[in-house]
Amino acid sequence: MEKIGFIGLGIMGKPMSKNLLKAGYGLTVFDINSEAVREIVQAGASEVSTCQAVAERSEIIITMLPDSPQLEQVVFGENGVLAGVRPGMLFIDMSTIAPATSQKVFAALQEKGVIALDAPVSGGQVGAEAGTLSIMVGGPEAGFQRAVPFFEKLGKNIVHIGDTGAGQVTKACNQIIVALTIQAVAEALTLAKKAGVDVARVREALLGGFAQSRILDLHGQRILDRNFKPGFKVKLHRKDMNIALQTGRELSVPLPASAIVTEQMDALLALGHGDADHSALALLAELLAGLKD
Ligand code: NAD
């Protein structure tokens, strides 16, 4: 079994690294949050104090970071990954970031003989914990084949989409559908609430019909429970929508509904809900409808 380095132990990275440990992989970890590191060390990982040291001790490096600036910091920063890599290593970024950043970071790694994959995921915290993530992969076939054995410990639907960046494009498509569906569920349940209809029964009825979706099921339940603890943070989804809109602009693809939902997310940030789960789009829909909690 190849030795894996894991950088970024947040909502997603923590359960993913635990699944790799459970599968028997030797893991070296790093995160700027020492509490998160402690939890994974207790589960069996080794701790080091720099990203460079993670690279020096590993054959494969996985990153699961919030956004592009953090990936650049981890790779290019002082004592970063780039300083510790050797030819033949495999680098896999599973974060959701701008395709342009992937290309820039990967080019620097490839110059050092490292094979790089973009492999963003879908399925959320629940999928990360259950090891049932959907993994969308861009990059060379040889790198993909080498990653499949441990991707299978993290996810169920593992698809090699195409060349470098193809995984991130797929993830942008995914985020459009998720955002617009949450907004649809939020608007529908707000309408039901203001009409004085039992919202739980509305959800139950719709789950048996054509409007059925995992989002109506899971996020609909969150909205009923007023459970806006993330999950997936509004500020991260807004980052993903910006990636989708930017990609649309570069390719002259209008994404009008995506733009509207991104504006709603901006409003949530302005109202101080950036760290809430993205199902908090319902809070805004209710506020605009003059409903109080
Ligand atoms: P998170 O904010 O919970 O975790 C990110 C982790 O990265 C944190 O532990 C943070 O301390 C660490 N970090 C930040 N800067 C660092 C640095 N310079 N060096 C080392 N560690 C650093 O985010 P998350 O929800 O786990 O999401 C991670 C990525 O996965 C994001 O790109 C997100 O868009 C994507 N994603 C999230 C979900 C979800 O449901 N949460 C689902 C699919 C994809």
CATH architecture of the largest domain: 3-Layer(aba) Sandwich
Mean pLDDT: 97
CATH topology of the largest domain: Rossmann fold
- Overall domain count: 2
Bound chemical compounds: nicotinamide-adenine-dinucleotide
Please tell me about this protein's structure.
The chain has 293 residues and is of the alpha/beta class. It has two domains: 4-163, Rossmann fold (3-Layer(aba) Sandwich), CATH 3.40.50; 169-288, N-(1-d-carboxylethyl)-l-norvaline Dehydrogenase, domain 2 (Orthogonal Bundle), CATH 1.10.1040. It is 54% helix and 13% strand. The protein is built from 13 helices and nine strands. The protein has helices spanning 13-22, 34-42, 51-56, 68-76, 99-111, 124-130, 141-154, 166-194, 199-207, 214-225, 234-251, 256-270, 281-288; strands at residues 4-7, 27-30, 46-47, 60-63, 90-93, 115-118, 121-122, 133-138, 155-162. It has a six-stranded parallel β-sheet, with helices on both faces. The protein has a three-stranded mixed β-sheet with strand order 7-8-9. Helix 8 (166-194) crosses helix 11 (234-251) and helix 8 packs across helix 12. The longest helix has 29 residues, at 166-194. The chain is globular, with a radius of gyration of 20 Å. The relative contact order is 0.10. It binds nicotinamide-adenine-dinucleotide (NAD). Nicotinamide-adenine-dinucleotide binds next to helix 4, strand 7, helix 6 and helix 11.
